[in-house]
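Quick one:
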Amino acid sequence: MLDLRSLSHEELVALMAELGMPAFRAKQVEEWVWKKHVSSFDEMTNLSKALRTELAARCTLGGVTETARQVSTDGSRKYLLQFADGVQAECVGMPTRNRLSVCISTQAGCRMGCVFCATGQGGFTRSLTANEMYDQVSHVADDFQTRASSVVFMGQGEPFANYDETLAALRLLNSPDGAGIGARHLTVSTCGIVPMIRRFSKEPEQFTLAVSLHSAVQATRNVLMPGVRKYSLGRLHEVMGEYVERTGRRPTYEYALIGGVNDNAVELEALCDFTRGTLAHVNLIQLNDLEGSKLKPSTAEKADMFVRALARVGVEATVRNSRGNDIDAACGQLSQKHSSK
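Output:
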């Protein structure tokens, strides 16, 4: 059967014509699917019963099944969602006052192999479709009974290793016919795939870019992030300069502070050199504990030292408060491991 949500607007209009229906019915169907997230054709109450029956006979509505859910003491919720073929991925909802941020996955698993990331240690299953990314946002918004105000593509997977579907999801989330979320509130995080950063800089929308840096010393970064070792820091620095020049937008560098690995004076000096004179913001993250890992978080004092040193070279830096740590929902912890916490 045909997945109704895989149809473009023009294809849906053509389907309506085939069924002897006026073109405006396509718009009504799209509103039920993308704005109201219905799971049954019977819920499309402004369509005739005959049309609903015909659509149900020809089409499916896709969607996801929640297989596990955990709630953090800070109010964050982590979900393990299953797609139509049985593949699963995680997403997280993070409420703050009257706003809801959603962290979604772009792949089930990841090939990048970052040593500090649980996803990277768990292998790779497949890339997700744009609809499956959108479904994660819809599911979280429905569970919180509020609209998502921002989405970060920072869950499982490398978004730029699934570029076309990631971009399609961004546009669907941004569209007034979809979730209607402002482009600047949609953030993509990449390990630093240089050709795709260059391509992303040429897209017309003002989507936000974050780059997982984690070290500005090549040897250290090669060990921490083996999946991007072929893209040198020199090439990354160059393409980020191009990105800023072309877009005028401020990118973010993510830097997880790992005790005894990337939190020393040499690493700090290299980070200052890498970011000095650039339009960039540095997000410092205390490494989140991973079961069985020898890597440990740095100290709050080291984080403060990094913030002060970066400020001296004109680079704004903040220490990010990780949400959902107690349910393994924080940065680097998504592994499809759910417990009764």
